[in-house]
Amino acid sequence: MPVCARCLGIYAGIFIGAVIYPLFRKLNSTQIPKFKYLLIFLAPLVFDGIFQTFGLYKSSNHIRLFTGILGASALVFYFLPLLNQIYNRFKNEK
Q1: Dihedrals phi, psi of 26, to nearest 5 degrees
Q2: Among 59, 61, 65, 93, which residue's CB has the most CB atoms within a 10 Å radius?
C-alpha cells in the first residue's frame, strides 16, 4: 500500500527520532522539552500542509518528505518522556 511523501516522512521521522533520542537524553527520562521547540519543528509541516491545501503554492515531494521527518522526529522527544511518566506512575502504584 503506497503512502504519500509526507506520511512516509512522518514514519521515517518517528524512526529517526527514536534512533537519535538516546544520543540526547536518557531512555528513562521524564523531562519534557519546552513546548516552543515542538512548535518550531512542527511549523514547517503545518504551514506546508495548509498552504498546499488552500492552493497558495504547490509543494514538492521533497518538501513534504523533509517536513514530515522534521516534525515527527521532534514528536518522539515529547512522547517518550510522557510514556515514561505513565510507566512510572503505574509502576509506583504496585
Answers
A1: -70, 145
A2: 65
Q: How far apart are the C-alpha atoms of 67 and 37, rounded to whole Å?
A: 15
Distance CA 47, CA 53 (A): 10
pTM here is 0.85
- Quick one: three-class SS letters along the chain? CCCCHHHHHHHHHHHHHHHHHHHHCCCCCCCCCCHHHHHHHHHHHHHHHHHHHCCCCCCCHHHHHHHHHHHHHHHHHHHHHHHHHHHHHHHHHC
Please enumerate in sequence order all residues whose Cβ is within 8 A of that of 50, keeping only pairs 6 or more positions apart, or say none: none
